[in-house]
Amino acid sequence: YRRLQAKETRLSEFNQTERKAMLGSYTKVLFVRDPFHRLIATFLQGMGISPSFSSFVQEVLDSRKAHEAWKPLVSLCQPCLVQYDYVVMFGFLRQELGHLLHRAGLPAGSLLPELTDSQVQWTYRWLSEQMFSELSALQKQQLSHFYRWDLAAFPFSSSFLSD
Question: Which of 28, 29, 70, 88 gives a 20 to 30 Å CA spacing to 96?
């Protein structure tokens, strides 16, 4: 495609015909993660300057321009615009990546790192309980509203924000 030579060409810069032709020639994989888990990971990585998780969440809710680390997934990956071939959920990586590699005809066993999905799920469940308890009822409601399209688009049924 004529604009692929440019360093940072965004999908939105292509017209609908070009976009359809280009996307049809790729296997499209989307990796998704519970938005609340993304917030926890961002906070733990020190991307916010807040001393507490509650104040970090308030920064996120008050910020006019969302950082990509906590921006809703639907605004980043355009699931209504792009028809993804695979959606891989964080917390099920070993199982889903194995299937994906098998479908691509690659030897799944030798390429996958040692992942312990159940430990990851347990850890994030525990962290979610701890962090969620720090939030006010208003913050919980605002976060659920902020991520409403992610929660509707992806099966985060056990997300604390789904309640």
Answer: 70
- Element holding 32 (H helix, E strand): strand 29-32
Give dist(CA 121, CA 123) in Å, integer.
Answer: 6
Average pLDDT over residues 116-145: 84
Residue 66 lies in a domain: yes
CB < 8 Å & 24+ apart, contacts of 10-19: 11/78, 11/81, 11/82, 19/81
- Is it the case that residue 81 has pLDDT exceeding 70? yes
Q: How many residues does the chain have?
A: 163
Report if residue 62 sits inside a domain: yes
- b/e code 16-51 from CB counts within 10 Å (16+ = b): eeebeeeeeeeeeebebbbbbbbbbbbbeeeebeee
| pTM higher than 0.90 | no
Q: Structure tokens of 142?
A: 């605002």
Phi-psi region at 82: left, alpha or beta (left = phi > 0; alpha = psi -120 to 50): beta
18 vs 139, residue with greater confidence: 139
